[in-house]
Structure formats: C-alpha cells, structure tokens
Design goal:
CATH architecture: 3-Layer(aba) Sandwich
Radius of gyration: 14 Å
CATH superfamily: Sugar-phosphate isomerase, RpiB/LacA/LacB
Number of domains: 1
Number of helices: 6
Structural class: alpha/beta
Order of helices and strands: EHEHEHEHEHH
Oligomer: single chain
CATH class: Alpha Beta
Distance between the termini: 27 Å
CATH topology: Ribose 5-phosphate Isomerase B, Chain: A
Bound molecules: D-ribose
Shape: globular
Strand content: 15-25%
Helix content: 40-55%
Strand order of the largest sheet: 2-1-3-5-4
Length: 142
C-alpha cells in the first residue's frame, strides 16, 4: 500500500501519479489535498509520513511545488527517510543506498512524464541490504 499526499502545488501531478498507480493495480491511500485550493504542505507530509512510520503503508509519495517543504516536514517523523528526487538515477540510488521509504517530488520542477518514470524506478528498486548502507541508516536513526 502506497500513501500519497500533496499540497495545492502538487495536486495535479498527484492526480497523474494516482492514474499510474491505478493502471498498475497498486493500492494507495490518498491523504489529500483534494483540490488546487491553497493549503499547507506540512499537514500532508506528516500524514503520509505517519502512515509509513506506523506500517500502514509500505512507502509514500509526497508532492508540493518544489518537493522541498513537504520533504522537510515528512523527515521530521521518526523512521521516515524522504528523498527528493527529480531524476531516475537519484530514485534508484536512494532506494539502494538509503532505503528511502518516501519519495518527494516538485510539480513545478519536473513534468508528469519524468515524474512517472521516477515513481516507477523508486517503487521497483530494492534496498541493497549491504552492510555499509545498513550501518549508515542506523547512524541516521540514532
Ligand atoms: C506553495 O506555494 C509552495 O510553497 C509549496 O508547494 C512548496 O513548494 C514548498 O516547499
């Protein structure tokens, strides 16, 4: 199950990502927002982060205008490793190296075509499970 959330700046791209998840029969929980009306990104970053941290969802996707504010908010929740990715290399590397469990993107930074490729890469890439990466993630948690 994927938790997904955005502010107004990310709403349209969130709808595109939801369309992709539906096409791929990937279950998701949409925490909002539900329109382009102005709202505050910390609320939605936190909602997605909580669903991932408490195990309700395996991974999360968060979107705001830049992806920055919402990722800062999500990363305040213990156990969440939100990675802001605007290219497929970063999406793959952050899964392999950081075991990132939340993907953040900026809807004013990239278009829907690239965003979907990034989502696909993020969801399909497994953590490497290499000792050095496990050690570094443990250090972040500590
Ligand atoms: C909203 O205008 C914008 O500030 C927000 O979507 C995001 O980019 C913040 O980091």
């Amino acid at each position: 199950m994927i938790a997904i959330g955005s502010d107004h700046g990310g709403y349209q791209l969130k709808q595109e990502v939801i369309k992709y998840l539906k096409e791929k029969n990937i279950e998701y929980k949409d925490v909002g927002c539900y329109s382009t009306e102005s709202c505050d990104y910390p609320e939605f970053g936190k909602s997605v982060a909580n669903l991932v941290a408490n195990g309700t969802c395996d991974k999360g996707i968060i979107i705001c205008g830049t992806g920055i504010g919402i990722s800062i908010a999500a990363n305040k929740v213990k156990g969440v490793r939100a990675a802001l990715c605007h290219d497929c290399f970063s999406a793959q590397a952050t899964r392999e190296h950081n075991d990132a469990n939340v993907l953040a993107m900026g809807a004013r930074v990239i278009g829907p075509g690239l965003a979907i490729k990034i989502v696909e890469t993020f969801l399909q890439t497994e953590f490497s499970n290499e000792e050095r990466h496990i050690r570094r993630i443990r250090q972040i948690e500590e």
